[in-house]
Write a structure and sequence with these properties.
single chain; 69% helix; transmembrane helix; two-stranded antiparallel ribbon
Length: 338
């Protein structure tokens, strides 16, 4: 077996094991969070136009990792619920970019420095863009939505039985069949927390969590394998000089090219991250890699087509410009700082 083939297979095995483990672990944690922040609460929290609503929209986007399949139906629901336009746009920008799965995979693959640049630009540009679009009156380019179609299943868990009531957090109460006296003191908040957690488990709040996580993993697995395969082949076979000549650190124009190439492509971030890792190892500049990741994660041709059913062409074009601008600015920041 040639050295190139050994390098390819070794990189494939390493990335497949590492990224699969991280995806399952983070998906489980996110699934728990989503059971406490259902979609109807998101609409209510984004209905205000106060400044903190913009920050809250970005944070909610970070803990609700939606792909374009589920973002568009949710966006329809937000429009119907008359959520604030500015916060709604912040959520639209931040949700696919600040996906905690993407952030963890980035940190594990590229380290904290690059991940910090990515998170900073994704967060700040999302908030600034949402506020600016609200201030400039782009709300007029939103189409009327009379019905929400194809809404994805909300991860709200099983409803609680009407005859039961959740513990109030007083530090004592009954869980299960018997009453347990806990007393008071410093341990009371801890006891109250575990009492509430036991109630959630008993009432079925986490029922189906693993099956949902495994189903999500199976859906993303083909994209993950595709990205790992392409990345491993690049790592093992593509000559380093070929990539560094056109996209190396000496060619800053590779950054906008990578951003424009990445934006229309329908590549899940789970697939582009191992691909980007291989490009970086072959000498492609970190700035170009950053622009490619943000461009491909923040927008896709499929998503733009779906957005056309909600927005007029002007707002769709502005959405794309913001994503490409975010990718280019983060790419040049990486080029200068990394």
């Amino acid at each position: 077996m040639s050295q190139e083939m050994q390098d390819t297979l070794g990189m494939f095995a390493f990335l497949a094991i590492e990224l699969s483990f991280l995806f399952l672990l983070i998906s489980l944690l996110v699934g728990v969070l989503q059971r406490y922040v259902p979609q109807e609460k998101i609409a209510a929290l984004l209905s205000a136009q106060r400044g903190r609503s913009y920050l809250l929209a970005a944070l909610l986007g970070a803990i609700t990792p939606f792909c374009s399949c589920s973002t568009i139906p949710l966006l329809k629901g937000l429009i119907r619920a008359r959520a604030g336009f500015g916060p709604m746009m912040v959520f639209l920008f931040a949700s696919p970019l600040l996906n905690p799965i993407i952030v963890v995979l980035l940190a594990a693959t590229f380290g904290l420095a690059l991940t910090g640049i990515y998170v900073t630009f994704a967060f700040l540009v999302s908030v600034i863009a949402g506020w600016s679009l609200q201030t400039l009156g782009f709300e007029r380019y939103v189409l009327n939505v009379n019905a929400v179609q194809g809404s994805c299943k909300a991860a709200t868990g099983k409803s609680q039985p009407a005859k039961d009531t959740k513990p109030t957090g007083s530090g004592g109460g009954s869980v299960g069949s018997g009453s347990i006296a806990y007393g008071q003191g410093y341990a009371a908040p801890i006891v109250s927390y575990y009492e509430s957690l036991l109630w959630d488990i008993r009432s079925g709040k986490f029922e189906g969590l693993w099956s949902e996580t495994w189903a999500d993993f199976r859906k993303v697995l083909p994209y993950l394998i595709l990205g790992i395969t392409i990345g491993s082949v690049i790592y093992g076979f593509v000559p380093t000089g070929l990539l560094t000549e056109y996209a190396g650190a000496d060619n800053p124009f590779a950054i906008p090219v990578a951003a424009v190439i990445g934006a229309p492509l329908y590549i899940r971030a789970e697939a582009v991250i191992p691909l980007a890792a291989a490009l970086l190892s072959k000498g492609v500049s970190a700035g170009a890699v950053m622009a490619l990741i943000i461009g491909s994660a923040g927008a896709s041709l499929t998503e733009l087509i779906l957005l056309k059913s909600l927005f007029r062409s002007t707002l769709v074009a502005v959405f794309l410009i913001v994503v490409i601008g975010m990718a280019v600015s983060a790419g040049y920041a990486t080029y200068l700082l990394y």
